[in-house]
Design brief:
Elements (H helix, E strand, L loop, with lengths): L1 E6 L4 H13 L5 E8 L7 H4 L8 H23 L5 E8 L3 H11 L4 E5 L13 H9 L4 E4 L10 E5 L8 H14 L2 E7 L7 H13 L4 E7 L4 H11 L4 E6 L4 H7 L1 H6 L7 E5 L2 H7 L1
Parallel strand pairs: 1-2, 1-4, 2-3, 4-5, 6-7, 6-9, 7-8, 9-10
Antiparallel strand pairs: 5-10
């Protein structure tokens, strides 16, 4: 049974993430946890002290939240009838990230799926602040779905790497899962710096090849360039419709979100973007 967490703010953007999730996992037994958080505009000192003027305010927000979640659940059931899928709703008076962290632990969530925010440009979808915060601190894999993305079965997966990670099955679990259930090809992309791979990189590449042995995959060396440029150009070349990267403090994805210049222009993606947190390596190490 797959356990998936999907935050929603009742927008078309967030519903798009739900629609993608149920279609991508159409043949899988799944429990989808729909989460909505609310924080009343006036909830500080007077609200916390139960001021007579604010008594019941939290209940109003809670009722609205639960009604919204029930409407979303019913909409999904009406549009995507699937006996393999069940939906649970969670309404929380909390900050989104705190509520997500709590549910990931309590419900043993396998995957978080969330929508990005709409962009001003027609061809670029920028990761919104909630998505970026989630990627930075998530305790599990996160799949970001671009606004207005029309579902395509993930058949071509682009996986940029610098071979600086000693890959393990625990880290690549969701990547292997998606590739396996859809018969996808994984295009492993390494940006060449005109230097030979170090012995450690060669060893990591060999480990990666072994882990990918049960799914279709190809290795590619591409000319030295910025990672965003490499992703954009090769996304077209490989007909990619699913992007996967590892978030590791020693690799380019972490730097991507930390560099002010990149933050200003906005890291963008026009296809679903799966981020695998590096700490998942530690999970396997403890087993």
């Amino acid at each position: 049974m797959k356990r998936v967490l999907i935050p929603t703010d009742f927008s078309d953007n967030s519903y798009g993430a739900i629609a993608y999730a149920v279609q991508m996992l159409a043949k899988e037994e799944c429990t989808f946890h729909l989460l909505h958080t609310y924080t009343p505009a006036i909830y500080q000192s007077e609200y916390l002290l139960h001021s007579p003027g604010q008594v019941g305010l939290g209940d109003i927000y809670r009722v609205d939240s639960e009604e919204g979640l029930n409407k979303v659940r019913q909409r999904v059931l009406d549009e995507f009838t699937n006996p393999k899928h069940r939906f649970e709703i969670h309404s929380a008076f909390s900050i989104l990230m705190d509520a997500m962290d709590e549910l990931v632990e309590e419900e043993k969530i396998d995957l978080i799926i969330m929508g990005t925010q709409g962009a001003t440009g027609a061809k670029e979808i920028f990761l919104g602040s909630n998505t970026v915060h989630a990627i930075k601190r998530a305790k599990g894999p996160i799949l970001a779905i671009p606004f207005n993305y029309k579902y395509e079965t993930p058949k071509k997966i682009l996986f940029p790497t610098d071979y600086e990670i000693e890959y393990r099955e625990s880290l690549l679990k969701e990547l292997l899962f998606v590739a396996s259930i859809h018969g996808a090809t994984i295009d492993v992309m390494h940006i060449s710096t005109n230097l030979e791979l170090s012995p450690a990189q060669e060893a990591n590449k060999s480990i990666l090849a072994n882990l990918l042995s049960e799914v279709k995959h190809r290795f590619h060396e591409v000319p030295d360039q910025r990672i965003v440029e490499a992703i954009n150009s090769n996304q077209t070349k490989f007909n990619t419709n699913f992007l996967v990267m590892v978030k590791n403090k020693h690799t380019f994805l972490e730097n991507l979100f930390l560099k002010p210049v990149i933050n200003q222009i906005g890291f963008h993606t026009t296809i679903p973007f799966l981020v695998l947190p590096h700490h998942l390596l530690k999970v396997e190490a403890k087993v």
